[in-house]
Design a protein that fits this description.
- Residues 26-252 form the MacB-like periplasmic core domain.
- Keywords: Cell membrane, Membrane, Transmembrane, Transmembrane helix.
- Belongs to the ABC-4 integral membrane protein family.
- The chain crosses the membrane at residues 27-47, 270-289, 295-314, 335-362, 374-398.
- By secondary structure, this protein is of the alpha+beta class.
- The chain contains 14 helices and eleven strands.
- It has helices spanning 2-21, 23-58, 80-83, 91-100, 137-140, 153-158, 167-174, 217-224, 245-260, 275-318, 320-328, 333-369, 378-404, 408-414, and strands at 66-69, 105-112, 116-120, 123-133, 145-148, 162-165, 183-186, 189-197, 212-216, 232-239, 271-274.
- A hairpin with a 2-residue loop joins β7 and β8.
- α2 (23-58) packs across α12 and α2 runs antiparallel to α13.
- The longest helix is centred in the last third of the chain and has 44 residues, at 275-318.
Length: 416
């Protein structure tokens, strides 16, 4: 054991000597390893951070949550021209389904609409994401409040001019003062702020609750009507726990088909999207991003491996006389083999460490600059280190084997 520790120490000394005495040559050889480790770990860290953010954003929702609307969350066999003719889901369909399935699920009605400018006295916030939704939304998506409350059933049904705003909007309009009870203007009318949400951070697809305003959906229906082609309606359904989701989907689809008067043989002119299917689609996309990162970084790692092999062959050539002396003094073949193999691994670890440090610096900078938490996980650090060791093993095995097989007499003579 002591012999191998000395061997590693000597290999480390030779690796450091190669770095110090042949700076440019060693730098160029290690550059491929550094770029390769940096590329793969940077991609994996970015994808892991995105995956973590998506799971955090979706954690407030049950994976069995259903979104009933005219669009599909994933690929569809129905031609696009036919999908474009599908009608919006309607408020009366929501009330019908809600009463018909009251014992099986919670339902909310939401309208995706345009952005608005919110004003308070001489301050304003532009391009605010407006979320018109019915009062049941609070029971489907667990919103957290820093102050105030969500609007109730009476306010929702009457389309009352009340609003729940995100943390960023509250800070922009009211600074440090309490926003609850104050009136803001939008749609040319005054709305009373009844709640402020806790800070959420960047949203999964850009928008966040921090920069959103929730208002009763019936206000939008009264203000714009139900026939606007520019808006997209959705019925959000949260089935009760323990319910057979497939059977419930079939029942939900049949009730809406009957309500719309669709005949046998007619295709559904709506889509029943389950959040679990959407998360599976996202997992597939993330897996493809990871694969792309591995393919791109693989070429850099290949180049880095050739660079390390080259520097090890040069190292064997320069130390041929020393190898002959070591063997003449009784050094075994495996001692020489491990000496050069450890040296190759240590050189790769130097290159990998630089790559990991660069990724770590970038994650810190990006987390501070962007409203998104980039994380370099311990798993990715271990992966990067393991890759460096594997590259060292592969790139150093042939030069190390060549050195171990040298004839001591010929090796000493070549150095004279």
């Amino acid at each position: 054991m002591i012999v191998y520790l000395r061997l590693i120490k000597e290999s480390f000394s030779f690796a450091v000597s190669a770095l110090v005495n042949n700076k440019l040559r060693t730098f160029l050889s290690l550059l491929g390893v550094t770029i390769g480790i940096f590329s793969i770990i940077a991609v994996l860290a970015a994808v892991d951070s995105l995956d973590r953010k998506i799971k955090k954003d979706l954690s407030a929702l049950d994976k069995n949550t259903i979104y009933l609307l005219r669009f599909s969350f994933g690929p569809s066999d129905i031609p696009e021209w036919k999908r474009d003719q599908f009608p919006n889901v309607k408020y009366d369909e929501y009330t019908y389904l809600k009463s018909a399935l009251a014992d099986e699920a919670l339902m909310a009605f939401q309208v995706f609409t345009g952005r608005q400018t919110l004003k308070y006295e001489n301050k304003q916030v532009s391009s605010v994401n407006i979320v018109p939704v019915s009062h049941e939304f609070i029971d489907i998506q667990n919103l957290e409040f820093s102050s105030g409350r969500f609007y109730n059933e009476a306010e929702s049904n009457s389309g009352a001019r009340v609003v729940v705003i995100g943390e960023e909007i509250a800070q922009s309009l009211f600074d440090t003062s309490d926003a609850v009870g104050k009136e803001i203007r939008m749609y040319g009318q005054r709305f009373m702020v009844i709640g402020v949400l806790k800070k959420q951070g960047a949203g999964m697809f850009g928008d966040s609750n921090d920069s959103s305003a929730f208002i009763p959906v019936n206000f939008i229906r009264r203000f714009y009507g139900d026939s606007g082609t520019w808006q997209t309606n959705v019925i959000i359904v949260k089935p009760n726990k323990g319910l057979d989701i497939d059977a419930f989907k079939e029942e939900l689809g049949m009730k809406l088909r009957n309500y719309r008067g669709l005949k046998d043989g007619d295709i559904n002119n709506f889509f029943i999207n389950i959040l679990a299917g959407f998360t599976d689609l996202l997992d597939g996309i993330i897996a493809m991003l990871n694969l792309g990162g591995w393919l791109i970084a693989g070429f850099s790692l290949l180049v880095g491996g050739f660079g390390i092999a080259n520097i090890m062959f040069v190292s064997v050539k320069e130390r041929t006389n020393l190898i002959g002396i070591q063997k003449s003094l009784g050094a075994k073949n495996k001692f020489i083999l491990f000496q050069f193999l450890f040296e190759a691994i240590i050189l790769c670890l130097f290159g990998g460490a630089v790559g990991l440090i660069l990724v770590w610096i970038i994650t810190i900078v990006m987390s501070n600059v962007a409203d998104f938490e980039f994380v370099l996980s311990l798993g990715n650090v271990i992966l990067g280190t393991s890759l460096a060791i594997i590259i060292g093993l592969i790139a150093g095995i042939v030069p190390a084997f060549t050195a171990s097989r040298l004839d001591p007499v010929e090796a000493i003579r070549s150095g004279m």
